[in-house]
Amino acid sequence: MRIGIVGAGKMGLSHYAIANALPNASVAAVCDTSRYILSVLRKYAGIETHTSYEEMIDQARLDCIFIATPTSMHFECAKHALERDLHVFVEKPLTLSASESRTLADLAAQRGRVNMVGFHNRYIGTFREARRLLEAGALGRVTSIHGSAIGPVVVKQQASTWRSRKAEGGGCLHDYACHVVDLMNFLVGPPTKVFKARMQSIFSRNVEDAVSAEFEYRGGAVGTLETNWSDDSVRKMTTKINIQCTNGELAVDRQELKVRCGTAFDVYQEGWNTRWITDLQEGVAFYLRGEEYTAQVAAFLSSIRSGSVVHENSFASAYETDRVLDLIARADQAAA
Fold first, then answer.
1. What is the CATH number for 79?
2. Structural domain contains residue 57
3. Residues 212-231: pLDDT tens digits?
4. Residue 158 pLDDT > 90
5. Contact at 8 Å (CB) between 117 and 93?
6. Does 290 map to a domain?
7. Which pTM was predicted?
8. Euclidean distance between CA atoms 47 and 257, whole angstroms
9. Does residue 292 sit within a domain?
10. Do 185 and 51 lie in a common domain?
């Protein structure tokens, strides 16, 4: 399988390494704006390089592409690839507007192309087990959900980059909160309403550094979202979900799943149970940064080989995440 990479930054190079390490797949071409990076890849990896994604898509005879550019470029690049019948993986979030994301989801369905967005938390064993319990009804009906993410991304005033420019996809809402919103959607489904939101600048001048919101779900459940990328109390991004139900509750992060069962279920006893990521994470063929990154790339390539467009992290599910982000932004503006 011939793979193209658009954007040779941190995530682009991560996908490059993982895809190249998986069987029956190889990166055939890379597109980036840095001629220095391209010259290094051309010299030491011997691959085809381009400065135009249109040129690469039209000339490199690819089967699929990974798009890891600033978010403002996602829509046009993904649209161009889908119109030429390539399978497409896009880094999160899918686009900067729900309407553009819906357009891409519809186009991918019309073309019958495999489509995925890089919300890697859906491939972490603890979160997947939490969803299994909820879908099985082991804890009863969900009554409330709380999602949070903190991390030290912007802990002082910084020079301008694309992450500090709203039009290019910068800001905590699209770069950080999107992960938590998508994970909450994954576990309990998308909310029907955002009835309160606050976007706060702490160190940044032109984008928000913290986002909070309150949600309402079908069936009467409520939810809260809290994200802050200017919190240096942790070494790296830390995401946690707490869910209360009528017959128990759970607290889950990347490392552990704590479950209180009102009645015993499967391997879970009545009362509190703790399970660790080491027991719940499935193994992968190649480890880089975390099993979940390889798992999502492997799932994308496997779907292409099988011809199945039914898979995790589709453009359709990413549209639901972007729809909620739009509602958060509107609620914040309404409260201003």
1. 3.40.50.720
2. yes
3. 999 999 999 999 999 999 99
4. no
5. yes
6. no
7. 0.96
8. 43
9. no
10. no
